[in-house]
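Dear Dr. K.,

Following up on our conversation at the group meeting, I've run the structure prediction for Apolipoprotein N-acyltransferase from Nonomuraea glycinis. I'm pasting the input sequence below exactly as I used it, so you can double-check it against your construct before we proceed with anything downstream. Let me know if the numbering doesn't match what you have in your notebook.
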Amino acid sequence: MVQEKTGPSPTLAPGPVAAEPRRRTPAPESKWVLSGRVAAAVAGGVLLFLSFPPLDWWLCAPLGLGLVVASLYGARPRRAAWVAFLGAVVFLLPALVWVRTIGDDVWLMLVGVESLFYAAMAVPVSLVFRLRLWPLYFAALWVAMEWLRGLVPIGGFPWARVAFSQGESVFTPYAALGGAPLVSFAVALCGALLAYALLRPAAGVRQAIPLALALLVPLLGLAVPRPADEGRTVNVGIVQGNVPGRGMDFLGDEPAVVLKNHAEETKRLARAVRAGELPKPDLVVLPENSTDIDPYRDAFAHRTIDEAVKDVGVPTLVGAVVAIGEEHRATRSLSWDPVTGPGAYYDKQRLVPFGEYTPFKDLVMALYDRASLVGRQSVPGEKPGDLKLGPVTIGAVNCYEVAYDDTVRETVRTGATPIVVQTNNASYALSNLPAQQLAMSKLRAVEHNRAVVTAATTGISAFVTPDGKVSWQTRELVADMTVVKVPVQTETTVATKVGAVPEWALIVLGAAAVLAAVWRRRRHDRMGNE
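The predicted structure tokens came back this morning:
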């Protein structure tokens, strides 16, 4: 019999290896895997851009997100972050190209800052891929990322959310249940399920299940109930006066040109009504900045507007920039009566940074000459835009605000109907901005069961029915006007009632998944060390 040695076991001997077990380092990825990630991220970014207006190839959104998932799947957090950043840059550079009007440096800076949000999202996403239901968690984290983008910095920038590529698609009905966040979630979930089927190939039923679920997500949207037509309508006149200039010099050299153009187009509408060419309106809507002179302080501006409103003979919503004290201003939606003149008003709450006010004013003004173009600093309003105008109480929303869920929702919750969006896109004419903004109006119509009337200085002015269909719209850079019969819907949707609850539920779901993934990873590491 061979006698065993009784000396100490080597595994129990003191030493750095036994005291501090090293974590196993994953093998580096091959150049082919890395090249595949880069290609998938770039292709995903391109497809996301193609899904947005003016192309409106909405089906590209879930396909693009599927490729984004493929680019991140299995990557370590640091690599996932820069791959996601690359895909976001490819997407946002063309999607936000309209910002070039202000300057290429501003455009590139904005794209760079916004792309950081996608990079930050990729880190927790790389962790939740270890969980069984990761397509669900990926979609929830995508919603969380879009929420954060709309919040910070300096008031957020919610442009180019995936939901805004779905102004008229099979995913749009989800807006009536949970607003824009639920639409983004549905598109992201569909894309993630498609990726799941391709990245985790299996035979027979196991592969068919994620593909079937990916198809089921948009089909379930078609089952969302729509409120019935209530049979009440109002005739709304829409005026687009046009401007002579382009870009940052859209006002041209002629004084009061915007005011004169819109007053003349309002009078042309009045003549068409008297001639029987158009039905008589119950109210008329002019765009944001339809007067470039303060009608409270300038007698000429007051008289010009008053004459035009008296000619058309009905209450008119005027877009005015008005002085507040000696140093500030407000972007105002002003109700103007043909008998009593200016009355109730709504002041824009969501202001455009560096366009209507200058954040960190002293520093920015010292560094950039263009910051002086802002002029007087705007101050935000504090109340929703419910304004009595003729036979209805409209919900006034001003330009940039249509991208913000809470601003539109709080206005609709007052009972206002229809929604009226006054906008001035003159600096961005013939870019992709006007079409992107119209897509937001289409989504808001479905989200709140409200018709949306948009009046723009240079286009696109439009009338969107409560089911999100564009019934009438103008071309850009032309003077135009019409009278449309607008349904007056008062029934609210689930999305209007529950507000941000679905969004917060998805954010909590995503956060819980990340915590679960971190706990699981630490537990696995601890067991491996033991």
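Two things stood out to me. The longest strand covers residues 328-337. Residues 322 and 509 are 45 Å apart (CA to CA).

Best regards,
J.T.
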